[in-house]
Amino acid sequence: MxxxxxxxxxxxLPGRACDAFVEGMxxxxxxxxxxxxxxxxxxxxxxxxxxxxxxxPGLVPDDVFFxxxxxxxFPSGQFIRKPDQLDYLEEPDVFHDVFGxxxxxxxxxxxxYIQAYGQGGLRAKKLGMLEKLARVYWYTVEFGLVRQAExxxxxGAGIASSATxxxxxxxxxxxxxxxxxxxxxMRTRYRIDDFQESYFMLDDLDELLELAHIDFAxxxxxxxxxxxxxxxxxxxxxxxxxxxxxxxHAAKKQA
Length: 255
Ligand code: HBI
Ligand code: FE
Hints:
Phenylalanine Hydroxylase; five-stranded mixed sheet; 13 helices; alpha/beta; 7 strands; two-stranded parallel ribbon; binds 7,8-dihydrobiopterin; about 260 residues
């Protein structure tokens, strides 16, 4: 399964994944032949950004997840999907976690940003704002795009570990590609069962540096009483990079 998934994604990612992803992958002890050894991954990560990979059985409770991230430990599923889940599964497996997330953890900006998410997670939960914060993680770490000179590029692990969404997210004319905006994203519901209807794009990964350091409390206060948006909404206030046709999700609704 690992080899099948690894080879398929390695064919698809050049020209679609961002430079940071490609660079991170190059410097990791990772290849098609077997599932990487977590100690060796941790050694490479530790040297570069001070992160480690720890094995977990699957989804872990929020507080456990945040505690790990806050201490620069990335929890990775220690199982791999079954052949009938080649293209989609809900629980994060070792392919999603290691192939999708670990290359980006070699990047110092992402390394700090994901730690800050762990630190902010517990605070958000106490404030009743976890749903809002989780959307920021979803639309950046999991499904984020970043602008490069050549066009939109993938940095989100949910995309980078999916063959079909890799192509859909950067090349299909169906989804919207909108400029990332923190409050806009906090107010936007997301789909967990299919491709995203909208992707939010950064001008530069360095934008996450700012997000890792600002105080979310006043943002939560504004967002708490604001209306929410559906996954496919495009607003007059959005900075639209590509207005999607919506064809893909419209066809699904009809079926
Ligand atoms: N556990 N293993 C694992 N991986 C995740 O991405 C994860 C989790 N537990 C909770 C969680 N994500 C999210 O619900 C939080 O980011 C809110
Ligand atoms: Fe993930």
